[in-house]
Design a protein that fits this description.
This protein has 205 residues and is of the alpha+beta class. It is built from 4 helices and 6 strands, in the order ααβαβββββα. Strands 1, 2, 3, 4, 5 and 6 form a 6-stranded antiparallel sheet that branches. Helix 2 packs across helix 4 (158-192). The two termini are 35 Å apart. Residues 5-24 have low confidence and may be disordered.
Length: 205
């Protein structure tokens, strides 16, 4: 039912390195950072650290705070731009995410519940707030029109906002779209089919 496939964006793990050790251990964290800085010097590149949390960690924290199981996919954009084809899938009530194309943004996350609901998580560069928006349902599944749910923009308690407002608004709009499709089908039958010409299904015995 989903429509967006994540890409690695050319980001690959360093050869011979597995997942990072538990970085809550300060000595292991210091050793890991030293190795990365040494590798960067060997490759004649720079390592720039940031006080901001890793977006993937934020995405997993949000997923853990939502009802049911959610899958998290992290996307990296080496050119610093969220692809416009991804932003085109955002179903929002107003142009909150579209201005992001003017700013450098190295990554985003897609959260999926396995039942057709997909969320886009991005960080707003100028104030550090996290933005969570719903993606349009696949047109093979449901045709929706009009404004979408209001995007969540928050620095803290993001999962609570998504759970209490964004997901209920999304579900309501999806249900309205389903009712509209049923009404359109009924209208077509009324206009194109003569009464009594549609056979009733034979009852099962």
């Amino acid at each position: 039912m989903g429509h967006h496939r994540p890409g690695t964006g050319g980001i690959h793990p360093a050869p011979g390195r597995g997942p990072p050790a538990g970085l809550d251990n300060h000595s292991q964290a210091r050793e890991a950072l030293t190795q990365h800085h040494q590798t960067a010097r060997d490759c004649q590149t720079k390592v720039i650290t940031s006080e901001r949390p890793y977006l993937g960690d934020i995405a997993h924290l949000i997923a853990e705070g939502l009802p049911g199981p959610w899958e998290v996919d992290i996307e990296h954009y080496p050119d610093g731009n969220i692809p416009t084809h991804l932003l085109d899938w955002v179903w929002e009530a107003g142009p909150v995410l579209s201005p992001l194309v003017k700013y450098r943004n190295s990554g985003a996350a897609i959260l999926r519940d396995g039942g057709g609901t997909e969320l886009l998580l991005a960080e707003r560069p100028w104030d550090g707030q996290y933005l969570v928006a719903t993606l349009l349902p696949s047109p093979d599944y449901l045709h929706v029109i009009g404004a979408g749910p209001r995007i969540v923009a928050a620095a803290h308690a993001v999962a609570a906002e998504v759970r209490s407002r964004l997901l209920p608004e999304f579900e309501q709009l999806v249900n309205l779209a389903r009712l509209r499709e049923v009404q359109e089908d009924l209208n077509w039958l009324r206009d194109h089919v003569e009464p009594g010409t549609v056979p009733y299904p034979t009852p099962r015995t």
